[in-house]
Amino acid sequence: MIMKIKGFIVAFTLLLTVIFNSGISSADGTVPGTSIIYGDCNSDGSINALDLAGFKQYLMDSERTYNSGMDLNLDNTADSVDYAILKQYLLGIVTTLPINAPTTNIKTGVNYKIINRNSGKLLDVSGSSVSEGGNVIQWGLTGGANQQWSFIDAGGGYYKIVNRNSGKLLEIMNSSVDNGGGAVQGIDDGDNSQKWGFIDIGGGYYKIVNMGSGKLLEVLNTSTANGGDVAQWTDNGGSNQQWYLVAQTTGNITYTLIREQNPTADQSDAYAKIKAAMDSAVMYYNNLTNISKQLTVYYNTSVSTADGNINGTIRFGPSRSYMDTRTAIHEIAHTVGVGQSSGWFSLVKNGIFTGKSATEELRNITGVSTDVLHGDSQHFWPYGLNYSSEVRTDADYINHCRIVNQFKKDGV
Ligand SMILES: [Ca+2]
Ligand SMILES: [Ca+2]
Ligand SMILES: [Ca+2]
């Protein structure tokens, strides 16, 4: 029996050798009059376990030559990445071959925040764990190192994703290939479950695909809550499977809250709430924009809600319902020019903000190529955060900052 198997492998290897040398290797993957069945390594018209065995043999052959029919991700190499893809195909994880190669325009050596498109929350190692198996979840922006990730080129368009705080890799627990397989952090062991491809879907968004399983990194159950679990799932087009990548920004908004020397109980309470709102708002601006501004913030009971001025002043009135992140972000936008600068007034025409960069950014966010930003003498929408009802998820804070950042490019 052993002899038989050995004989089969020899015969199979010979067959493959014939196939590999048969000239199916033109740059566009086709030969006139011949159409390649990608993954059909033994050219018998079907793709099955025999092809996987053949591929393994091929990889062990030190003198192998490139074969486009085995280049299943169209990156001009036929290697272990393609073998993994063939395995995924036979498991039914990948349903068509070839697949598009993940993008290779990811920068290495840079710390990124990885933000879920649906929730606006960040890919985060729970509790800043540094342990093997520490859970990876989503959490609102904190600026913490456990929410920052850098990439190491793992070849074939795949990357290792390293948590800045722990130095451990984003991985799928137990190399699961199942829906719901958990995203955790682990020590680098070279496994394909620790390698990820980035599929650029435009607008700054990526699908992040696990090399071991072919499944996408997603926030389970489209959670928008802090602590929502991150795992893998079959691509279903959901925005909970799409991620916005943002590298280090140069935003530098600082503020001073003016306090009475001997504050009343009401003032002390207001200061604490205003500080929390401003800290959160400044965090968003500094992590998502390149805008700098020094602000002076007041608590003033004669102000009806809150206001912001291009001179750098923000005033909060007595209503506690306006001492929140939404209002603070909205007022910061005024201090950097929204409804305040001459640039604003020349760019808003007939109720439309006409600047190119911000308009393009809105379309990046919505995916609708005809969308326009509406504006008046004071405000803009969508994403102006003019009312608390405009905040459905943290993604609205993120998108506000993306647009205001582009307002500055447009000359606001
Ligand atoms: Ca076959
Ligand atoms: Ca390939
Ligand atoms: Ca997880």
TrEMBL record:
GO biological process, alphabetically ordered: cellulose catabolic process
Protein name as it appears in the record: cellulase
InterPro entries in the cross-refs: Dockerin_1_rpt (IPR002105), Dockerin_dom (IPR016134), Dockerin_dom_sf (IPR036439), Ricin_B-like_lectins (IPR035992), Ricin_B_lectin (IPR000772)
UniProt cross-references to SUPFAM superfamilies, sorted A to Z: Ricin B-like lectins (SSF50370), Type I dockerin domain (SSF63446)
Lineage of the species this protein comes from: Bacteria, Bacillati, Bacillota, Clostridia, Eubacteriales
Keywords (A to Z) from UniProt: Carbohydrate metabolism, Cellulose degradation, Glycosidase, Hydrolase, Lectin, Polysaccharide degradation, Signal
GO terms of molecular function: carbohydrate binding; cellulase activity
Short name of one Pfam family: RicinB_lectin_2
Domain Dockerin: 34-99
Reaction(s) catalysed (UniProt annotation): Endohydrolysis of (1->4)-beta-D-glucosidic linkages in cellulose, lichenin and cereal beta-D-glucans
Signal peptide, first to last residue: 1-27
The EC number(s) this enzyme carries: 3.2.1.4
